[in-house]
Design brief:
5-stranded mixed β-sheet; 5 helices; alpha/beta; Cytidine Deaminase, domain 2
Amino acid sequence: MRISFEEMAMKFAKDAALRSEDPHKQVGCSILNKEGRLLSIGYNGLLPKQEVSSNFWDNRDERRKYVIHAETNALACISRYEEPHILACTLLPCPSCAINIISHNIKKVLYIEEYDRDNLAHEIFDFYNIKLIRYK
C-alpha cells in the first residue's frame, strides 16, 4: 500500500533531522508541493563550516541565539512560485518560522512534537487559516 503525501513528508523530515549537529534537539523539515513532489528539506544547525568552541552546544539558551531553524533552511531553497503546499516538521515551528512559512503561501503544516518554550504558532496559523496538524 502506498503511503500518503503527509506520511512521506514526515519521513523526509525525520531523516533530515538526523543531519543536525545539535546533540540536544535535532529538528528536520520537508516541503512538498500539491502533487507530492519534494521541493526542499532542512535541518537545524549552523552555517556550513562555522567553527565553534568544543562546549558551544552545552548551553541551550546561548546556542539557541545562533542556530538556524530547520524550517528556515528548507524555505531558503524554494520560492513561492514553486507552489509549496505541505510543510512537515519534527517540532512545532516557532512564531518567527510560522510567519516565514505563511509568507511562502504554504497551506498545511504537520508537526510531531510541541515546542515547549513557545506555542504561539497555533494562534498564528489559526489567524491565517493554515491547517496545522499534530502528526502521531
